[in-house]
Design a protein that fits this description.
Number of domains: 3
Strand content: 25-35%
Bound molecules: heme C
CATH topology of the largest domain: Jelly Rolls
Helix content: 10-25%
Number of helices: 7
Number of strands: 26
CATH architecture of the largest domain: Sandwich
Largest sheet: 11 strands, mixed
Shape: globular
């Protein structure tokens, strides 16, 4: 990218960009040279034929009519779907698909300049997209999934309301197995109608096992989902999820109509640790706040509400991800840590929640919060039941906790690894010495 000032006749066509490195000028911004590479890297995963987005954004002809809408969606940080507040909390995530401030400024400046095409010879080399029919984690594990569980097929009509299809399927396991990785994918023909798919596990837990207390009522314990920017779940070294003999998988498939009748099915692929191997740590999925939300959620008509839930950590732990869950009146959700000494730290804040998107924010190896026993996790949820909320179907209704999408709820799906005291101190020491070396 040319950051130098242009001095000759082309000056008027160059644009000032305020990026994180300060103000700089760019030659005339063109689709071929500047915009296509940004779209290729950040948008084509979804905005190409056969994928979930409503239109392809590959060629100049495809992109040009959308230019003004693209500008407003990227400036509002609605697209790509990454709705985290960039000004507070942890910013390092394994699956970050957000645009940089510079990229947003370049797109805006290009649209303001009339969205010129430029020289097609400047276009980036086309990406050879992998076949959509593969399991994306198969490369990593060097084999197809050990077990594939399929939801029973559902036929989504050409027109009509969104549908939730929630079959429960036996895993067929006759002995307990430890999961090292999982991936959810709609079958090829299901992709256009599958908005998202959440997968829960139902199995007996020991009564005193804290995991039993954090199930999502009626569904089971949250397992994984087909979601934005997500390749699958790969559990860190020494960790895994326990899938017991006789367990069942509950699917929550959210389908929308696309003008053509389509029969849809979701597949859950599971890779196990080798038989007999027991990882040091069991990863627990918790729905933080769900109990408090069931008891206290109270959203009067015409109001914006704030609710808090506090969940104590019974042992020192690492949080692996953050995935807020609310319904159509959901506005924002944060997760803070209140340390035993009273100090408060913001971990992650989604300030621009959108019910259509179940974005899972996966902490990186070095950013995952390592918290002492006795830490209180504080979930704060904001709901907007006013007429200003464009998604609100009826601001005159009182809303409480419930499963239907016209009811509401709030909780955060968080995978928690409870650490031994020794490992906890070791990780803290390692991180301190890494910081020292920087
Ligand atoms: C993870 C998949 C995904 C990624 C990545 C993504 N989009 Fe989208 N986009 C969608 C889906 C699905 C919709 C329709 C639903 C919605 O609007 O939320 C959409 C909607 C849009 C719309 C609005 C269309 C309309 O009818 O108003 C625009 C504009 C857009 N995307 C642009 C972009 C751009 C530009 C990028 C990259 C910088 C991008 N998107 C990245 C999936 C994605």
């Amino acid at each position: 990218m040319n950051k130098g000032w242009k001095t000759q006749a082309g000056f008027l066509a160059s644009v000032l960009i305020l990026g994180s490195e300060g103000l700089f000028a760019l030659d005339e911004i063109t689709f071929s040279k500047d915009i296509a590479p940004i779209l290729q890297e950040n948008c084509h995963t979804c905005h190409r034929p056969g994928q979930m987005a409503p239109m392809a954004l590959m060629t100049y002809e495809q992109v040009r009519p959308w230019a003004p809408v693209i500008k407003s969606r990227v400036e509002a940080r609605e697209m790509p779907p990454w709705h985290l507040d960039k000004t507070v909390g942890i910013q390092e995530y394994d699956n970050d698909i957000s645009l940089t401030d510079e990229e947003i400024a370049i797109i805006s400046a290009w649209v303001d300049a009339g969205a010129p095409q430029g020289n097609p010879e400047d276009l980036p080399v086309a990406i050879d997209w992998p076949s959509d029919e593969i399991w994306r984690l198969a490369d990593k594990y060097e084999r197809e999934p050990d077990l594939i569980i399929r939801s029973t097929p559902w036929t989504q009509s050409a027109q009509g309301q969104d549908q939730w299809w929630t079959p429960i399927i036996e895993t067929g396991l006759t002995e307990d197995r430890w999961v090292t990785g999982m991936e959810v994918r709609p079958t090829m023909q299901s992709r256009p109608v599958t908005h998202h798919a959440v997968v829960y596990i139902q199995q007996e837990e020991e009564p005193d096992d804290f995991v039993a207390a954090v199930d999502v009522p009626g569904r089971g314990s949250y397992l994984t989902e087909f979601a934005v920017g997500k390749i699958g779940d790969v559990f860190r070294e020494n960790t895994g999820k326990l899938m017991k003999a006789g367990s069942r998988i509950a699917f929550d498939n959210h389908y929308h109509s696309v003008g053509q009748e389509i029969t849809a099915q979701t597949e859950l692929g599971i890779w196990f640790h080798e038989e007999g191997y027991v990882p040091k740590y069991r990863v627990y999925s918790q729905a933080l706040g769900v109990m408090q939300a069931m008891d206290t959620l109270d959203i009067p008509p015409g109001k914006i509400t704030t609710h808090h839930a506090y969940v104590p950590l019974t042992a020192q732990a690492r949080l692996e991800n953050y995935q807020p869950h609310m319904h159509i009146r959901g506005k924002a959700m944060s997760m803070e840590a209140i340390f035993p000494n009273g100090q408060v730290q913001m971990l992650s804040h989604v300030d621009n929640f959108n019910f259509n998107w179940h974005v899972n924010y996966v902490y990186s190896e070095n950013s995952a919060p390592i918290l002492p026993a006795g830490t209180m996790l504080k979930i704060t949820a904001w709901h907007d039941n006013t007429a200003d909320n464009p998604h609100n179907p009826d601001p005159t209704q009182w809303v409480g906790w419930g499963q239907r999408s016209y009811d509401d709820m709030y909780h955060a799906h968080v995978n928690i690894t409870y650490l031994t005291e020794e490992d906890y101190h070791q990780i803290i020491r390692d991180r301190r010495s890494d910081e020292g070396n920087e």
